[in-house]
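Hey all, quick one. A colleague (J.T.) asked me to put the pyridoxal-5'-phosphate job into the tracker so the inputs and the structure tokens live in one place instead of scattered across chat threads. No bug as far as I know, just bookkeeping. Sequence used:
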Amino acid sequence: MTAADSLLSLVGGTPLVRLGRTAPEAEVHAKLEYLNPGGSVKDRAALAMVLDAEESGALPPGGTIVEGTSGNTGLGLAQVAAARGYSSLFVLPDKTAVEKLDALRAYGAEIVLTPAGLPREHPDHVVAYAARLAKETDGGWLADQYGNPANPDVHRRTTGPEIWEATAGRVTHLVSTIGTGGTITGTGEYLREVSGGRVQVVGADPETSLFSGGDGSPFAVEAAGHYWHPQTVDVGYPEVYRPDVVDRVLPIGDRESILTARALARTEGLLVGGSSGTAAAAALRVAREAGPDAVVVAILPDSGRAYLSKYHSEQWLRRQGFLDDDRPGTLASLVSTVVSVPVGTSVGEARMVLESSGHSALPVVLAGRSDRFPPAAGEVLALLLPDDLRGSPDAAVPVPAAPPVGIGTGETAAEALARLDPGVSVVHLVRDARLAGVVSVGALSRL
Ligand SMILES: Cc1ncc(COP(=O)(O)O)c(C=O)c1O
């Protein structure tokens, strides 16, 4: 052992560990990016972007690092700022979990909140707001992880060579999630080059994300994938992402991602986040298809510590309907065909749909684009009751003001009833964080 001069010299150099219990017949390795000092793969990009800006003079001594991020890039940048004597200023959506805000503040960062759910073109969207603040702040510099070439470049110089060395050049497949695309682009470029094109580069993507050909509607796994806000016009890929480096992108459903993350903790002792579950699930699929000679490496971006109240909480999993098969008496049997009408449907039409469906309520969804529960900001998902359909048949269906109430397929009727407010008469049934039925409270109490 030697003593490090700076915490920052400990960024990178993360180990590979074989998933021997999960895939005993195959050779699947996980690269443990949560062992970086700031807890994620983004330590690499954060440090590289700052060093690059110091060299070019874009970030003056004692200046302020600015970025719009609610996640790991913020933590990585806040860490570098503290260790190298800069101020840091982050713009975050106002819905960001208080633990994340506190973690950034713990490093001494300043936080500015902006409304969540704004389309990318809005001047107060996190990215646009951060760019403006960087310009207005004396000595301010915008890190710009989505457009900064230092982001993919650090993976070309470090992550790629580390994988090549750790597998003694035997790696056949790289599996990585895609957020900014920095990790997969840089690591993939290096491994393709050094192997003479032999290494296959596979993206692992939330099922509805745009990278794997989804419709861009919301997904539960955080920090990976490309979501399309309904009012966003420009849905282009991030500047640093190079799709030509990627051989194929596998869509992985939220349930598979989340339950894989949960299984990694229980069978391998690896407590990782949701996007790590996405990467591991894709890697296991690749290994099954490629056969016994494949050497598959999956990059696991961060730790499960930040998600203890979500992916690693049985209560959350049951209420979102991700865990519904392991107990008697859960509401999974109530999953039914969901009929819904888009916002703007006429009352007359909605009434006909309601009558022919046999349901006592109709979900209203925005243009039918997403049935995710709870709806993302900017999307409407509400229950329409018969009383709401009394008006003129030509009028548009009213959008009820009250937020919809959901119960998970992993709950029992007694558990669900115990947490419902007395005034609620009809609820959404939720499976895989998506609408899976409509149930009256009366029917629930008779179960
Ligand atoms: C948890 C997690 N997973 C995946 C990613 C995607 O990595 P990249 O931005 O390099 O594509 C990120 C990026 O912030 C992340 O924080």
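Adding what we noticed when we looked at it: Residues 150-166 form the longest helix (17 residues). Residues 316-446 form a domain with the CBS-domain fold (CATH 3.10.580.10).
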